[in-house]
Specification:
Helix content is 40%, strand content 19%. The protein has 336 residues and is α/β, with parallel strands linked by helices. Bound molecules: 5'-O-[(R)-(carboxyoxy)(hydroxy)phosphoryl]adenosine and zinc ion.
């Protein structure tokens, strides 16, 4: 069965066709990064306007000559995300479903990130621990099936990607921050700076939470004197050293907590998802540390880590198979 997936929760307009929840037939992503670049972050009004202009051409490209009647259903991100942005995808999905008489289902964007690894080759077996680290969220899920997600960790303030974006802005490295920090960190000298971990003490209830705001503030105070608010004197190479130390600390926190959570919950596999999972250092460290602990680690291709509609179509297939279609009064919900 072919499912059309639609994704408009943030700053990517995406449509994809996936067969039987596994085989990606098309995966079209129109990124708005260049529109938001000069503001240093996503501007909701600009995102909505771009989604409105792009959604129909993106859907047409994903259909690649197929008709709506070739489809078995339409799946759309309905939460969480920017409310105006979500509404554009949800409204388009409803209109198409109604016109073509197709079943419709809303999909949770974070659960779809945790599912995305199942579209990769090889896909992990259930159960696995998914680390979803993106610009808006940082979550650990125990995944027991394509629709069975249990949250066992999260962030109590900034998301991991948000910390990369804010630190890049503090260091004057541009937007989006993740790739900019990764690039700058390559020139950084090891062991020159230490920052506090973002991994909080594990809770007795089996939760493994993060706090990235202390790490971000430590970077800020390294660059600006908190008493005077003035920039501190800088030597050549300082920015690269700070970028490197920040990246290593943020990633070590993600890796140590994810591995500890997998062991605590008796899981033998870890899967990565979300934009930060595109980070080469995170992929390598998770693989090395996980393998040392006897855990299997899968990091899907980068295009499946960042926002895409193939993961939405994938979850959608399983929702239809489980009889979980939604009606045309499906709502967009900004919170998770
Ligand atoms: O999943 P995603 O594409 O969108 C959201 O759902 O937020 O994630 C975007 C986030 C941004 O914060 C971006 O800076 C971060 O992922 N990111 C990275 C890298 N590439 C993207 N963070 C660290 N290293 C990277 N290479
Ligand atoms: Zn995302």
């Amino acid at each position: 069965m072919l499912i059309l997936g639609l994704e408009t929760s943030c700053d990517e307009t995406a449509a994809a066709i996936v067969e039987d929840g596994r085989r990606i037939l098309s995966n079209v992503i129109a990124s708005q990064t260049r529109l938001h670049e000069r503001y240093g972050g996503v501007v909701p009004e600009i995102a909505c306007r771009a989604h409105t202009e792009t959604i129909l051409p993106v859907i047409e490209e994903a259909l690649a000559g197929r008709r709506l009647s070739d489809l078995g259903g339409i799946a759309v991100t309905s939460s969480p995300g920017l409310i105006g942005a979500l509404l554009i995808g949800v409204t388009a999905a409803k209109a198409l479903a109604w016109t073509a008489g197709l079943p419709l289902t809303g999909v949770n964007h974070l659960e779809a990130h945790a599912f995305s690894t199942l579209l990769a080759d090889p896909a992990p077996e259930f159960p696995y621990l998914a680390l979803i680290a993106s610009g808006g969220h940082t979550i650990l899920y125990v995944v027991e099936g394509p629709l069975a997600f249990r949250e066992v960790g999260g962030t109590i303030n900034d998301a991991a990607g948000e910390a990369f974006d804010k630190v890049a802005s503090i260091l004057g490295l541009g937007y989006p921050g993740g790739p900019a920090i990764e690039h700058a960190a390559r020139e950084g000298r090891p062991g020159r700076i230490e920052f506090p971990s973002a991994a909080l003490k594990p809770g007795r209830d089996g939760r493994f939470d993060f706090s990235f705001s202390g790490l971000k503030t430590a970077v800020l105070y390294r660059v600006h004197d908190p008493k005077t608010g003035q920039p501190r004197p800088r030597a050549p190479g300082d920015i690269a050293d700070i970028a490197r130390a920040f990246q290593e600390t943020a990633i070590e926190s993600l890796v140590s907590h994810t591995v500890a959570a997998a062991i605590h919950h008796g899981l033998g596999r870890i899967a990565l998802g979300g934009g930060v999972a595109a980070n080469e250092h995170l992929r390598r460290r998770m693989e090395a540390t996980g393998t040392r602990q006897g855990l299997e680690v899968t990091a899907p291709p980068r295009a499946l880590c960042t926002d895409n509609a193939a993961m939405i179509a994938g979850v959608g297939f399983h929702r239809f198979a489980a009889g979980l279609a939604d009606r045309l009064d499906l709502d967009a919900v900004p919170t998770k």
